[in-house]
Amino acid sequence: MKQPFKINCSKAATLCAGQTKRLQANGAAAFIWSPSKGLNNAAIAAPEATPDSTTNYRVIGTDDRGCFQDTGFVSLLVYPFPTVDAGIDKTIAVGSSVDLVPKLSIDVTVVNWTPTGEIFRNNQDAITVKPKTNTEYTVEVKNNGGCTAKDRVNVLVVCNGSNVFLPNLFSPNSDGVNDIFYPRGTGLNKIKTLRIFNRWGETVFAKSSFSANDPSAGWDGNYKGSKLNADTFIFIMELICDNNSVLTLNGNVALVR
User: Fold this and answer.
1) Sheet order of strands, 135-143 included
2) How far apart (Å, rounded) are the C-alpha atoms in residues 201 and 31?
3) C-alpha dihedral sign at 213, 215, 220, 225
4) What is the rounded average pLDDT of the residues 102-118?
5) What is the C-alpha to C-alpha distance for residues 214 and 211, in angstroms, rounded to an integer?
6) For residue 120, is pLDDT > 80?
7) 2 with 21: CB under 8 angstroms?
8) In angstroms, rounded to a whole number, what is the distance separating the alpha carbons of residues 194 and 219?
């Protein structure tokens, strides 16, 4: 003799759009799930559900003689995937910084950037980076449903001389202003060589393997212990940038008294 029964169902769950979740019911001989849309089989105990939006599934369980039935429900809360656009690739001079500002869908609640080593400022979702070499940055976002999305942006680092400053004149008169001719800049690993020639091609100053931005490593306008007269000199400098690029620069510098 058949008796009334209770069916047991799986708990409510959260998933991202397009994902699949297996529903589960037991305690009956036959089952019918509805709505059937998104189910691989609506007439089994444990169908796979791939809903495109939040859905409350109902299952009716029946005994093997069709005498009694019971009803259960399983809710699947469906979140859309967020969207993120990291932006176009950037090109910067070595020693410079750049802002990376992603475009995000409004449901984004968490933003993470990698790698983190060259990030020196965070501004909500955007970051400011100062990489020494070409670097690919990945931004991954998440919403309240735990659904994630990611995008990448490349920052290309060039050493083209725009990060270097060499004055076109200096006045070694001991007044504390522009007394020394020396290379300055950012993103400079080392000055490999600096040579200065007079108008007859004679070397009046030469130095190798020193740091930029160091007045003590520069030229004070003397040659062989004597002050040179006002004139125009030619320099050739070979430097190594922080991205290991080697750059050669040349030009003129006027010595004024």
Assistant:
1) 90-93, 148-158, 135-143, 108-114
2) 98
3) negative
4) 94
5) 6
6) no
7) no
8) 10
Question: Left (φ > 0), alpha (ψ -120 to 50) or beta: where does 13 sit?
Answer: beta
If you average pLDDT over every residue of the chain, what do you get?
A: 95
> Mean per-residue pLDDT for 31-36?
97
252: left (phi over 0), alpha (psi -120 to 50) or beta: beta
Tokens 């160091």 sit at which residue?
Answer: 214
**Pair 119, 128: CB distance under 8 Å:** yes
Where would I find the H helices in the chain?
Answer: none
Residue 47 or 122, more confident:
47
Determine whether 51 is exposed, middle or buried from the number of CB atoms within 10 Å of its CB (0-12, 13-18, 19+). buried
Could you give the domains of the chain? 8-79 (2.60.40.10), 84-158 (2.60.40.10), 164-255 (2.60.40.1220)
Cα 63 to Cα 114: distance, rounded to the nearest angstrom: 56
Question: Looking at residues 184-207, what average pLDDT do you find?
Answer: 96
Nearest alpha carbon to residue 212 among 233, 235, 182, 236: 182
Q: Is the pLDDT of residue 237 over 70?
A: yes
DSSP 59-96: EEEE-TTSS-EEEEEEEEEEEPPP-EE--S-EEEETT-
Nearest to 7 by CA among 38, 33, 37: 33
Q: Rounded CA gap, 218 and 12, in Å?
A: 73
Query: Residue 2: pLDDT band by 50, 70, 90 thresholds?
Result: confident
Question: What average pLDDT does range 209-228 have in this prediction?
Answer: 95
Mean pLDDT to the nearest integer, 204-222: 96
d(CA 241, CA 157): 10
Please write the tens of the pLDDT for every residue from 53-62. Answer: 999 999 999 9
Name residue, tokens 């930029």: 212
